[in-house]
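Q: Joint fold for the lines below.
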Amino acid sequence: MALVPLIEYADATPGVRAVYDDIMATRRVASVNNFWKALAHDPANLKRVWATVKEVMAPGALDPLVKELLYIAVSVTNNCEYCIHSHTAGARAKGMSPAMFDELLAVVALANATNRLANGYRIDVDPQFRDPLA
Amino acid sequence: MALVPLIEYADATPGVRAVYDDIMATRRVASVNNFWKALAHDPANLKRVWATVKEVMAPGALDPLVKELLYIAVSVTNNCEYCIHSHTAGARAKGMSPAMFDELLAVVALANATNRLANGYRIDVDPQFRDPLA
Amino acid sequence: MALVPLIEYADATPGVRAVYDDIMATRRVASVNNFWKALAHDPANLKRVWATVKEVMAPGALDPLVKELLYIAVSVTNNCEYCIHSHTAGARAKGMSPAMFDELLAVVALANATNRLANGYRIDVDPQFRDPLA
Amino acid sequence: MALVPLIEYADATPGVRAVYDDIMATRRVASVNNFWKALAHDPANLKRVWATVKEVMAPGALDPLVKELLYIAVSVTNNCEYCIHSHTAGARAKGMSPAMFDELLAVVALANATNRLANGYRIDVDPQFRDPLA
Amino acid sequence: MALVPLIEYADATPGVRAVYDDIMATRRVASVNNFWKALAHDPANLKRVWATVKEVMAPGALDPLVKELLYIAVSVTNNCEYCIHSHTAGARAKGMSPAMFDELLAVVALANATNRLANGYRIDVDPQFRDPLA
Amino acid sequence: MALVPLIEYADATPGVRAVYDDIMATRRVASVNNFWKALAHDPANLKRVWATVKEVMAPGALDPLVKELLYIAVSVTNNCEYCIHSHTAGARAKGMSPAMFDELLAVVALANATNRLANGYRIDVDPQFRDPLA
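A: Joint structure:
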């Protein structure tokens, strides 16, 4: 049970409903997830977080499916149960196949392993890797 | 300075050289990174890690650039300096533009934030997110 | 179910009871939490951990409510379910309002995000931030 | 050296300068930190992150100094060198004494320890800790 | 419920069965854990991960019990519920007493605490600690 | 440069000197590390942390070398540079060979990888792993 009550649409203030409406319209879904219903406990944060999610996850230099995969990679590394489930569902809706999910987890596991080898041996960065991106 | 001496090609045993040769051939580069030179301190681990990297990072259901982006996402979340530098270089060599890197970091930052909102509010997973992948 | 049996007061040794008594007296509560009942499996550790908690969480340069808020911030970042629940209860008992909890989570989420932006871009510390505290 | 060039005010676009001006006006400082100069590589992210920082770190149910202390607690737990330095400087400017910093670190260390005891023993949450905040 | 179906021996392909057979023979057990049944969703990864586990966890310079203890230490630090349970069982089968488990958790808690003190105070490494291992 | 001045023996108060003396006597060394010199900024914390380190790291059900190895495993997982260096030196002084260090890092890397596979696939704990330790 969440630490705060979940706010259903019927019980929401107009400001919260406006965010819910925008989430449903943007994602073409008929209701909002528990995540948003919990955040609605703090309407200012709800509004800010949604505005950021809407912008950051929109198509850009990276396509939306790749962004969902990155989201899962972070959530698995941090072990956020809610986020793994919700973004796995989101990624599937955007075309992630089971094989893609398997490969994603294999990369995430490998990266978590080699991160510790590099840190444990205290390996110096090769000079040619230090160039800034233009 | 690394906690173990870096093994240069000239000083390597035949078994280590065979791995170095395979890395250079697979990646079409003229030398190996410090990461491999440090791992060579433990030839069995060098061989295992390279075998896994070679398989996991090869083209598959996900393309190699997406895999590099996932690697960066994990490495930034864990703050592995070596891995951020080496995989950013690897991703650039595979076509990552500066704009893609910026978007990647924006997604990683967002995911790290919402992971904590979901965990902090102890939000229950929506039932529809629990379906297993076929 | 915990990995070790929880030790109830009635079943505790005199040494464990003495710690339980001190916890109950210090906190003005009628029983101890599961955390202490599990730690009692290792009486030396129970005694050490309680001695540290008692000293560190006492009023000092920071007031006890602020210390509870810091505890929650760490526990949310690490996703310790037990600790989030117990320290949220502790903070409420010391005066944390729901609005304070919301703001706390907003700060924790933001910090987790900008930590990754700073690490991902490998931003150098500004020289003026390096001065040691007197 | 950062992975992206730092954008100085003199070289910034009008949109970036507007953010820099707002940072300097809000914080009453004469220049912006490296963090913002690196984020300016991605003006949309710079604008979003600053808007969130400005709102989240403003006085509210928690005072700005407490928010800085929470920021440090998260940054120390994640080991973000840049953020530890910049938010320690920020907290000092808002009144954090050396004794407060010492107590903060003692709480952060303790919480990181007990998080692992609770997780390692797999301690069940006491029922009375599960009540949601109103 | 796992995000992928668990593959039972009766339903497994010959390649997956070969891995299951090797796990059961190596460990002298009559069935494989859920971990392997989930990984079997991706037979290439199953094979790779088992090959690494088999080699890395075998007796060597460190004995197998010490390796299980190290595994628990990492899993507790990362809060991997599955891994804490499975490796605690593994360690007990190899001789870990309850007192050893208690001491392990006390060390893990302490290390997690002092890691944050060292990082929070930004303590410089003593020069004599920088020598590489021969 | 540390965020607080390092307190040398010559400049220390009698209370701090008493802790330094006990560290040097217990460890049979002629001086204390930077870690203790930084903690001395907060004498109460110095005293508490040393008392815990002295007890927890003493011989018990686990021998002191195993405890040092566990310390390194945690510190590598968290990427605490100071702690990796100081506890690697400590472990070497207690008999850790380079081959043992290599195997330790291989186990730590593997555990960090499989932690993410277990979490990412959301694998349920096998019932037989749930038995509490007696």
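Q: Anything notable?
A: Residues 98-120 of chain D form the longest helix (23 residues). Chain D has two domains: 1-56, 59-120.
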